Amino acid sequence: MSEVRVLVGTRKGAFVLRSNEQRKDWTVEGPHFPGWEIYHITGTPSDPNRLYVSQSGGWFGQVIQRSDDAGKTWETMNNEFAYAGVPGTHQWYDGTQHPWEFKRVWHLEPSPTNPDSLYAGVEDAALFHSNDGGKSWQELSGLRDVKANLWQPGAGGLCLHTIVLSKDDPKRIFVAISAAGAFRSDDGGQTWRAVNEGLKSDYELPDATAEVGHCVHSIAMHPSRPNILFMQKHWDVMRSDNGGDSWHEISGNLPSDFGFPIGVHAHEPNTIYVVPITSDSHHFPPDGKLRVYRSRSGGNEWEALTNGLPQSDCYVNVLRNALAIDSLASCGVYFGTTGGQVYVSADSGDNWQAIVHDLPPVLSVEVQVLS
Length: 371
Description:
0% helix; Thrombin, subunit H; 41% strand; globular; four-stranded antiparallel beta sheet
């Protein structure tokens, strides 16, 4: 029987939740790194024992940790971009007064095939790559050639928060930046172009259809269809059928088209999930009802998934990295809230249960299925 491992990053440590493929009874391990902000904890597809953690603190700055024994022990990576070595300070990328200051790692994305290949999206927005499991890093600086002087910080900062890799084409990389937009590289990160045609930001930009400057919250892709992308934007849920070359809106009958995460069903590439919140100023579910919305048609037509979720007086938020989907036959969906709850549905969203209720605010959720 398979083991399911849910990796949860919170404001005050990392937690590992374990169950079998029934996903009914869970054990909770942690906190790892108690008291630290864990912006992201993730596993490695090609090595089930390797985990990576983005660990951040106001005094010691930013550190990346690696475990090669599924979280039993951890090693601090001596990454030259991540830690200045002086408490309370952050390092400039090139060690000088560079206009991009390093503040934190928002997202870690291991290669689907090589356990030592790892990408890091950081704030201020930039993309780094490591070929030795996080020990050393190189910035893929070509990204900042795409009108970076026009990028602006969103409410959460100028952060590169989403990295999407294509399993079939290792040279193709998508990233999303708040507030700059979506970008694609077809040569392994050496050169980039903005892929924001069709996005509109009426309230955020003087030119609502500008090439860059859009506040993209998250991007998702099904591995079997690498040219079809789904996006949760700062207002609007979007879809691209041509690798990001153009986008069209699929918000349809959602009660609000504002939210942060978006995910795709493991076996049904037209089934997608979002968690709407009221607005950019009211970061809580519409009407105080926590509802995940599912579309089985690739967008436009949405159904509310509510069974097992609180339907009154609920004012939590679900952040951009806090939704994950497993690969079991009865596809599981997971999300964490700023109220410290982690929910699971073992039947693609039809029914939900809380795995835990009282963690610190959840920043990220990832899931692994181990045979």
